[in-house]
Write a structure and sequence with these properties.
Layout (H helix, E strand, L loop, with lengths): L3 H36 L4 H11 L1 H15 L5 H30 L4 H29 L6 H16 L1
Protein name: DUF4395 domain-containing protein
Keywords: Membrane, Transmembrane, Transmembrane helix
Organism: Exiguobacterium alkaliphilum
C-alpha cells in the first residue's frame, strides 16, 4: 500500500501529464467540430456526436485517474469503488449524449433540456461524494478531491515562485 504523501505526488504529476494530453485532445475535437459546424449542415446525429466527442477529454482524465488509483491498493473493495467512480463519469457522459438527443428532438426543448441536466447531474454529484467517502473508509491513505486540489494549488505556487 502506498503512503498518502507519495500518492499525492503521483496524482499531481499524473494530472499534469494527463491534462496536457487532454488539452490537445480538446483543441483537436473543437477544431474538427467547428469545421463541421461551419462547412456542413448539422443533423441531430452529428450534433450528438460532437457533444459526445467534447466529453472525451474528461473520460481520458477519469480513465487515467482510475488506472493510477488501482495501483495504490490491492484490496478488492477499494478497487471496486475506484472502478465505480470511473463508471459514474462514463454513465454521466453517455446519459448527457442521450439527453441531448432527446431534448433536441422535442420542440421547445430548452426547459426540458435544463430539467434533464439537473436530473442527471445532481444524483451523479451525490454518487461521487458517496464513492469518495467509501474509498476513504476502506483506505485511510486515500487522497480525496479536496486534498488533491490543495496539492495542485501548492504545486502551482511552487512553480510560480
Amino acid at each position: 500500500m502506498v503512503e498518502k504523501e507519495q500518492r499525492v505526488k503521483q496524482m499531481v504529476e499524473n494530472d499534469r501529464n494527463v491534462n496536457k494530453t487532454a488539452l490537445l485532445l480538446t483543441f483537436m475535437i473543437l477544431g474538427i467540430a467547428f469545421y463541421f459546424i461551419f462547412t456542413q449542415e448539422i443533423s441531430l446525429a452529428t450534433f450528438a456526436v460532437i457533444i459526445m466527442a467534447t466529453q472525451l477529454p474528461s473520460l481520458y482524465r477519469a480513465w487515467h485517474r482510475m488506472k493510477l488509483l488501482l495501483t495504490f491498493n490491492d484490496e478488492a473493495r477499494y478497487q471496486k469503488f475506484v472502478r465505480l467512480e470511473f463508471g459514474i463519469v462514463l454513465a454521466n457522459v453517455v446519459l448527457l449524449g442521450l439527453f441531448i438527443a432527446i431534448a433536441w428532438s422535442i420542440e421547445g426543448s430548452l426547459v426540458v433540456f435544463a430539467v434533464m441536466l439537473l436530473a442527471l447531474f445532481i444524483p451523479f454529484i451525490f454518487l461521487s461524494v458517496w464513492v469518495n467517502r467509501k474509498l476513504e473508509l476502506i483506505d485511510p491513505n486515500h487522497v480525496n478531491n479536496h486534498e488533491l486540489r490543495m496539492a495542485h494549488r501548492e504545486a502551482a505556487k511552487n512553480r510560480l515562485s
